Amino acid sequence: MTVESISIGISVFALIISVLTFYFTLFHNKHSLVATVAKWTNDPDPNTLDNICEIGVFNNGNRDLLIQSVEVDFSENSSNRAYPELNLNEVPCSLKAGGCELLAIPIPKLFMENAQNKDLLIKIIIYVYTIKGELRIATKNLTPIIGDKGPASLDWQPFFLRKVKLSDRQ
After folding, report:
1. What does the H/E/C string look like for 11-27?
2. Torsion angle of alpha carbons 114, 169, 125, 95, nearest 10°?
3. 41 SS3 class
4. CA–CA separation, 91 and 167 (whole Å)
5. Could you tell me which of 162, 155, 169, 166 has the C-alpha nearest to residue 61?
6. Apex CA 79: angle with CA 78 and CA 82, to 5°?
């Protein structure tokens, strides 16, 4: 091997690395979001109408995301389709690549009692739009928190963003 062939090899390697970096910087879109329950606030005061579920959302993709809305529903289809309307100050919001946000979700105690009486879980649904306008969702089933009962261990597990299937749309 001559010095010229070593120089050419190093130049070709540097060119390949440069092209790959260019592709992953400008053209590769990774839309990823991880959410986890950060805190449950269960106020035993009977005059308090809501329990607060704080959810941390983390954008670990390389493109910004828009958190459009958050809904609370029963985990399964129920004959009672009444679910609370949420007014969140944090939503809608733009979540920058690498950014995080803490969403405080007020869940009415009456809704939780209704879910517990029917042996249902509570489903948190986070609707997210990508920079290309694609709808994605992150869902999590949670145990209703009533009285002194704390959250189940599975409630603390993270949940992830996924593409919307036709069965997800109501």
Report:
1. HHHHHHHHHHHHHHHHC
2. -160
3. strand
4. 25
5. 162
6. 80
Tell me which amino acid residue 41 is: T
Give the model confidence (pLDDT) of 9-43 as tens digits.
899 999 999 988 888 777 767 778 899 999 888 77
Q: Kindly state the greatest CA–CA separation across the chain.
A: 84
CA 72 to chain centre: 13
Bond from prior residue into 92 cis (ω within 30 degrees of 0) = yes
Which two three-digit tokens encode residue 56? Answer: 């941390």
The strand order across the sheet containing 162-163 reads 93-95, 65-74, 122-129, 135-142, 162-163
pTM comes to 0.77
Tell me which residues of the chain have a pLDDT lower than 70: 1, 28, 77-83, 166-170
Has domain 33-168 been given CATH number 2.60.40? yes
- Per the CB < 8 A criterion, the answer to whether 124 and 151 are in contact is no
